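G., before I forget:
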Amino acid sequence: MNNPLRYSPEAIRELCQTHPLLDELIALNPVSWFNPERQPAEQALAMVGLTAEDVQDASLRLTRFAAYFKVAFPETAVSQGYLDSPIKAIPQMQQALESRYQQSLPGELWLKMDNLLPISGSIKARGGIYEVLQHAEKLALKAGLLQRSDNYAQFNSEPFRQLFSQYRIAVGSTGNLGLSIGIIGAKLGFQTSVHMSADAQPWKKDLLRAQGVEVIEYESDYSAAVAQGRLEASEDAHCHFVDDENSVQLFLGYAVAAERLKVQFEQAGITIDRANPLFVYLPCGVGGGPGGVAFGLKLIFGDAVHCIFAEPTHSPCMLLGVYSGLHDHVSVQDLGINNITTADGLAVGRSSGFVARLMSPMLDGFYTLSDEEMLTLLGLLAEQENIHLEPSALAGMPGPWRVVQDEGYLQRLGLTPERLAKAHHLVWATGGGMVPKAVMDNYLAQAAKLT
Ligand SMILES: *Cc1c(COP(=O)(O)O)cnc(C)c1O
């Protein structure tokens, strides 16, 4: 079982005495919390137990696999077999938000468009696919089919599919991780099982089944789907379980994003340093994706980067875990919060303990926003910039305004008006590339109703 600990209502009441923000979380009010435990990058990184070499190793592995992607997924040929996404300034959206939040934003608003990542159209194409590749490489090396210096295009051949067909890959998911792992797993020839939580969208299940992936559906939420998947996998020696709550491999796959981002900023002629700070706003579910990206960013940009996580008011598991210091020992359900949100990628009631511990010293802040806000922003971005994202991917959008409205935080970190004027605010658009048109039209209709 994932974590049998349950906080009683009395224990929660006591916790609220020392942690007054919890009352706001319970009331489902949008909150911002800037982290007093934040440490300089060097200290925060020293606690991770992973290094720049580990990220480099992951990056080199992805480079070896570029030859495979070019042949197995021809849509990656334009990016030479790399799985990456562009960055883009969104000045019209910035203006629209300045008037929505009635405050002008010093600096520039940018979007990291992981919705355009090849293969699965979400940030999960980074970590999820990476972990499957790492596993496949290990099996192929062990079977004597491969040397590291070989051309990895041969992963797209019958002997490799034959080998992998003797193995199973399993994962528990709210949808997008299952999509990424199901698609790459099936393509390589693995038997693949995806344990889907109740909130997973029907179209994601249909798409996976069409690829020959076994989809197991649950009535319950994400944590239960993961726990059941983990249990079944543990009984099968030939099954590799991608453990979204604990996986170092996933984390490293996500972390690779940062080195590419550095190059993209350089190519755009943008300097990032202490005088020209970078703020990055990351939607957070269980924490592996945004946590891995934040780790990578800190390695590359150090104290010049400020990372902030965004969560739905109905699923604030990471804010709860870090703010209370209880990490994965507490769930939003313990607070009577239902973990039901239209942002299905973020519908997680209990954070990854592994990630929560690492984020305590690393992150500048956390905030929550309502489903209505995410949907409204979805409509606004479509209208202003003609960019279509899934609701989860909008969570980062209000972040810059939360930052500039918190005087105490700005002072504490020495974020003077001069530095803020030179800031870049990067909203991580974590998904939406595969949303069917009918589903997107429905989101847009809901957004239209709200405005
Ligand atoms: C999974 C996901 C996230 C968050 O990633 P975690 O690793 O669960 O924290 C954010 N946005 C989208 C669209 C996702 O699918």
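The chain has a mean pLDDT of 95. The chain is about 45% helix and 15% strand.

More on Monday.
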